[in-house]
Amino acid sequence: MRLQEPSRTARAAAFHRAAHQVLEQGRIFSDPLALRILGADEETVAREAGERQMDRRMRLFIAIRHRFAEDALSKALGKGVRQIVVLGAGLDTWAYRARLRDGARTFEVDHPATQAWKRDRLMTAGIAVPRSLTFAPVDFERDTLAHGLAAVGFDPLQPAFFTWLGVVPYLTVEAAWATLEFIGALPPGTGVVFDYSDPPESLSPELRAFHDERAARVAAVGEGFLSYFEADPLRSELLARGFSEVEDLGPREIARAYFPSRKGEIPARGGHVVRAARA
Predict the structure, then answer these.
(1) Do residues 90 and 114 make contact, with C-beta atoms less than 8 angstroms apart?
(2) DSSP H helical segments within the chain, as ranges?
(3) Phi and psi at residue 226, in whole multiples of 5°?
(4) Which string of b and e fits 155-164 if b means at least 16 CB within 10 Å?
(5) How many helices and strands (H and E) does the chain possess?
(6) 82: Cβ–Cβ under 8 A, 6 or more apart, which residues?
(7) DSSP structural state of residue 168
(8) Are strands 191-197 and 271-277 parallel, antiparallel or unpaired?
(9) In angstroms, what CA-CA distances link 204 with 18, 131, 200, 208, 267?
(10) Tell me, what's the pLDDT at 3?
(11) Rounded to whole angstroms, what are the CA distances from 237 to 182, 191, 265?
(12) Number of C-beta neighbours around residue 32 at 10 A
C-alpha cells in the first residue's frame, strides 16, 4: 500500500462483501453492516459490481473465506478461547456484530493509515465500537506483530484465535511465515484461518488470465501479489512449526462444502482457505 493511504485492496474486499449481500442476498455469508461501513447503497453496489463470471467467482470466494473463518472462530470461542485477533482487519465487521461474553476481547491489527480510515468510516456510519474491541495499529516496516499486540494488552500466555483474510498473498513468503511462527508458538487452543493461492503457473488458462489481470491491477496501486503456496508443502511446514491440525480447502473442497449441488468440472487449482490450530 502507498504511504499514508488506506489499503485499496481492503476497500475492494469490503465492496465484494457488500455486493454479496445485494446480489446473492448474503446466502453464504451474512453481514448486515457491510453496506453501512462501506458507505454505499444497494443500487450503487449492484451497478458497480462486475457481471463477469470471474468477478462473481472472486466475490463468492471472499464470502466463503469469511464464513469459514467466522464458523471456526465461533467454535474456538465455544472451547474457551477469549482472545480474538483480526489481522489486516480492513473494513471487517465481525467485532461490531459479535456479542462477546466472559471477558473475551477482540484486537484489530492493521496499518495505521488503514485503521484511521476505518475508524472514520465507523463514525460516519454510526457503528458503535464495542468495549471489548481494541485497535492495534502496526506498521510492519517498523514494528512486529508481537510488540504491537503486547502494547495493547494481548496476553501471549493465553490461547488466541486469529483471522487473517486477504493478506497473505500481499506478503513475502518470509513475512507470512514470521507471523505463522508467532501464532504457532502461542499456547494450545490457538488457531488461525488464512487464505492463499496456488502458483499462477499451475492454474488453468482461464484462471491464469484472471489472475494476471488482478495481479496487474493490484500492482498498479502498490499492493502487488508476492507469495503463493502449494498445499502439501504448506501443510508439512505448518505441522513442523507448532500446529497440530491443518484443514485446507481448495476449489474442489470448497465446492463440496458450499455448493453441493453444483454440476460440471471444478478446477483443481485456485484459491484456498486454511484453518491451522494447536490442539
Answers:
(1) yes
(2) 8-23, 34-38, 42-48, 53-78, 94-97, 112-125, 145-150, 173-184, 205-220, 231-240, 251-258
(3) -125, -20
(4) eeeebbbbbb
(5) 11, 7
(6) 102, 103, 104, 105, 158
(7) G
(8) antiparallel
(9) 28, 47, 9, 6, 8
(10) 47
(11) 14, 15, 30
(12) 11
Spatial separation of the C-alpha atoms in residues 173 and 256, rounded to whole Å: 29
Cβ neighbours of residue 46 closer than 8 Å, sequence gap 6 or more: 19, 22, 23
How far apart CA 198 and CA 167 sit, in angstroms, is 15
Where the chain has pLDDT below 70, the residues are 1-5
Torsion of CA 190, 196, 202, 207, to 10 degrees: 140
Coil, helix or strand for 273? strand
- Measure the CA–CA gap between 52 and 61, rounded to whole angstroms: 14
192: Cβ–Cβ under 8 A, 6 or more apart, which residues?
Answer: 161, 162, 163, 164, 180, 183, 275, 276, 277
Which homologous superfamily is 8-277 in?
Vaccinia Virus protein VP39 (3.40.50.150)
Buried residues in 208-228 as b, exposed as e (16+ CB within 10 A) = eebbeebeeebeeeebebebb
pTM: 0.95
Q: Give the model's pLDDT for residue 4.
A: 56
Ranges of each domain in the chain? 8-277
Take residue 195 and report the three cell numbers written for it. 487464505
- 51-80 tens-digit pLDDT: 778 889 999 999 999 999 999 999 999 999
